[in-house]
């Protein structure tokens, strides 16, 4: 029996089992079994290279956004509208057969938008090009789940389930469960609060299913069995998702109103170019990008090209900012001056662990260039950016 059939069989058994206190342990065990099988399903077949015939698209820009949806919901039309890159759109299904990248220029940042083939129910089990599409979704910072506003509302759940089945967790935070495998000592189970979904016995059973006999488990929230399994599996990807209802030009105003009130949703029409600015603003918010502008001493900040940082990718501290400019910069830095929302007063003198916020302005003050500098303690305050430093030093020595 194949893995997919085994999953189906267990799902059938679960559906048949009544949910109550007595079956709780059994159901938990079945959930763990399914999770294990799904992980197996994701492993590339033996002998094939992991990359296989996936959609190899090089990452570009400050973040990556993927368009996921059923066929003919308007993904390609949207890519063309937002990026100017032509992606063929047509009234028949599966017009797009591969991954088409485009670039959105927004708020001085460049965001890579990826058009993808439509996926269908069963994608997570390898139907259509589902697996490749989902792999791209996993590599993104934000998923735009494109839905046809005139079609069944159930599509949203079906697609969410498909992505969940392969370990994506949409608009969720990682469970607050500390889990560490040990070599000896058995299982220690603790919690910082009253648990209503999982008790010690259930936790033991799940761990047993994974053949884990020595571990430390600490629940820091009232998490569920599914959360525990996610933590044990350890390969879950927590990702932001905006549900984009397209084609609102063909439905009534009441339906538009209803859809716009769904969680994490936005309604648009590519044909009438309705609400696309709101979609971009929403996407920007979800990406959590932080633009930092550099200010050379005694000059206006350079507002033309920010350094773009991200909390999720690499972090937003002064240290991250410096590393972004040049690896060696951190060694030479004395402190930075910060203007903007992260500063308590203007300018605030900050160390390398200070966390920057969007649209902050930073001036870097370097350590004394040479200690044997006649002891006069002359500091140099440099503009940042390897190119700009080089340029300036060529043109004129820095004011001191
Ligand atoms: N009424 C209406 N039709 C739209 C809208 N956006 C796209 N369409 C139409 O929907 C059809 C499918 O559009 P595509 O952009 O090819 O959809 P897709 O999701 O890329 O489709 P596949 O690549 O086949 O998965 C085309 O006939 C578009 O003209 C819209 O806002 N309103
Ligand atoms: K199409
Ligand atoms: Mg398409």
Automatic annotation (TrEMBL):
<dbReference type="Pfam" id="PF01926">
    <property type="entry name" value="MMR_HSR1"/>
</dbReference>
<dbReference type="InterPro" id="IPR012675">
    <property type="entry name" value="Beta-grasp_dom_sf"/>
</dbReference>
<dbReference type="Pfam" id="PF16897">
    <property type="entry name" value="MMR_HSR1_Xtn"/>
</dbReference>
<dbReference type="GO" id="GO:0005737">
    <property type="term" value="C:cytoplasm"/>
</dbReference>
<dbReference type="InterPro" id="IPR004095">
    <property type="entry name" value="TGS"/>
</dbReference>
<dbReference type="InterPro" id="IPR031662">
    <property type="entry name" value="GTP-binding_2"/>
</dbReference>
<dbReference type="InterPro" id="IPR006073">
    <property type="entry name" value="GTP-bd"/>
</dbReference>
<dbReference type="InterPro" id="IPR031167">
    <property type="entry name" value="G_OBG"/>
</dbReference>
<dbReference type="InterPro" id="IPR006074">
    <property type="entry name" value="GTP1-OBG_CS"/>
</dbReference>
<dbReference type="InterPro" id="IPR045001">
    <property type="entry name" value="DRG"/>
</dbReference>
<dbReference type="GO" id="GO:0002181">
    <property type="term" value="P:cytoplasmic translation"/>
</dbReference>
<dbReference type="Pfam" id="PF02824">
    <property type="entry name" value="TGS"/>
</dbReference>
<protein>
    <recommendedName>
        <fullName>OBG-type G domain-containing protein</fullName>
    </recommendedName>
</protein>
<feature type="compositionally biased region" description="Basic and acidic residues">
    <location>
        <begin position="367"/>
        <end position="376"/>
    </location>
</feature>
<dbReference type="InterPro" id="IPR012676">
    <property type="entry name" value="TGS-like"/>
</dbReference>
<feature type="compositionally biased region" description="Basic and acidic residues">
    <location>
        <begin position="389"/>
        <end position="400"/>
    </location>
</feature>
<dbReference type="GO" id="GO:0003924">
    <property type="term" value="F:GTPase activity"/>
</dbReference>
<keyword id="KW-0342">GTP-binding</keyword>
<keyword id="KW-0547">Nucleotide-binding</keyword>
<feature type="region of interest" description="Disordered">
    <location>
        <begin position="367"/>
        <end position="400"/>
    </location>
</feature>
<dbReference type="GO" id="GO:0005525">
    <property type="term" value="F:GTP binding"/>
</dbReference>
<feature type="domain" description="TGS">
    <location>
        <begin position="288"/>
        <end position="366"/>
    </location>
</feature>
<dbReference type="InterPro" id="IPR005225">
    <property type="entry name" value="Small_GTP-bd"/>
</dbReference>
<feature type="domain" description="OBG-type G">
    <location>
        <begin position="63"/>
        <end position="288"/>
    </location>
</feature>
<dbReference type="InterPro" id="IPR027417">
    <property type="entry name" value="P-loop_NTPase"/>
</dbReference>
């Amino acid at each position: 029996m194949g893995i997919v059939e085994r999953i189906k069989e267990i799902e059938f058994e679960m559906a048949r089992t009544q949910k109550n206190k007595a079956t709780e342990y059994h159901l938990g065990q079945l959930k763990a079994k399914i999770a294990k099988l799904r992980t197996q399903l994701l492993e590339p077949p033996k002998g094939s290279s992991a990359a296989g015939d996936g959609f190899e698209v090089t990452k570009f820009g400050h973040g990556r956004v993927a368009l996921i949806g059923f066929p003919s919901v308007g993904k390609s039309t949207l890519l063309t509208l937002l990026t100017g890159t032509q992606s063929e759109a047509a009234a028949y299904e599966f017009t797009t057969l591969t991954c088409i990248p485009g670039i959105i220029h927004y708020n001085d940042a460049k965001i890579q938008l990826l058009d993808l083939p439509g996926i269908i129910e069963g994608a997570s089990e390898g139907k259509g090009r589902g697996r490749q599409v989902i792999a791209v979704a996993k590599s993104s910072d934000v998923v735009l789940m494109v839905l046809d506003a005139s079609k069944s509302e159930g599509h949203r759940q079906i697609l969410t389930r498909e992505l969940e089945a392969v370990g994506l967790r949409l608009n969720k935070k990682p469970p607050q469960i500390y889990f560490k495998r040990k070599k000896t000592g058995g299982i220690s189970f603790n919690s910082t609060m009253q648990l209503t979904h999982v008790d010690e016995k259930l936790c033991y059973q799940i761990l047993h299913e994974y053949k884990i006999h020595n571990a430390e488990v600490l629940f820091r929230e009232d998490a569920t069995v599914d959360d525990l399994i996610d933590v044990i599996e350890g390969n879950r990807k927590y990702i932001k998702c905006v549900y984009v209802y397209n084609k609102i030009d063909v439905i009534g105003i009441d339906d538009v109103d209803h859809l716009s009130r769904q969680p994490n949703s936005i309604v648009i029409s590519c044909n009438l170019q309705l609400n696309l600015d709101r979609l971009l603003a929403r996407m920007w918010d979800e990406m959590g990008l932080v633009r930092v502008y550099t200010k050379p001493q005694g000059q206006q900040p350079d507002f033309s090209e920010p350094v773009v940082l991200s909390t999720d990718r690499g972090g937003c501290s002064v240290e991250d900012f410096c590393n972004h400019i040049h690896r060696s910069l951190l060694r030479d830095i004395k402190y930075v001056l910060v203007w903007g929302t992260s500063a308590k007063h203007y300018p605030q003198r900050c160390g390398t662990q200070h966390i920057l916020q969007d649209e902050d302005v930073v001036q870097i003050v370097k350590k004394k260039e040479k200690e044997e500098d006649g002891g006069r303690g002359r500091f140099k305050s440099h503009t940042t950016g390897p190119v700009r430093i080089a340029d300036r030093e060529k043109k004129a020595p820095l004011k001191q």
